[in-house]
Write a structure and sequence with these properties.
The structure is a single chain. It is elongated and about 45 Å long. It is mostly helical and 101 residues long. 56% of the residues lie in helices and 0% in strands. The two termini are 14 Å apart. It contains six helices and no strands. The chain has helices spanning 4-14, 22-33, 37-44, 48-54, 65-79, 94-97.
Length: 101
């Protein structure tokens, strides 16, 4: 049986991510993740071209599915890390990526 706290965490993780505008994608990458487009693309397991399209208003492309959810997690976790230095990949502990384990 799940506790109310655990159920709340699962609901928060299972809610659909908000739509990411080109400006928001760039802001998450530059200000939160502090990564270049190519490094960020590798982190998200997409091509650099995909990140460039997400950040270009003219392309009309937006991250969806798993990529949008991962962007949401990056945005939230980066807020909890020091803003003066890049956050380490270890900032994603198992409880965030694998809430059911």
């Amino acid at each position: 049986m799940l506790s109310a706290h655990d159920l709340g965490r699962i609901k928060a993780l299972s809610s659909p991510p908000p739509t990411c505008t080109p400006e928001r994608v760039a802001q998450i990458r530059i200000k939160k993740a502090k990564m270049s487009q190519s490094v960020f693309a590798g982190f998200l397991n997409v091509t650099t071209s995909t990140v460039q399209k997400w950040e270009s208003p003219a392309s009309g492309k937006h991250p969806g599915g798993a990529a949008a959810k991962l962007l949401q997690i990056v945005e939230k976790k980066a807020l909890m890390h020091s803003q003066s230095e890049p956050w380490p990949l270890s900032a994603f502990d198992a409880s965030v990526l694998y809430p059911c384990s």
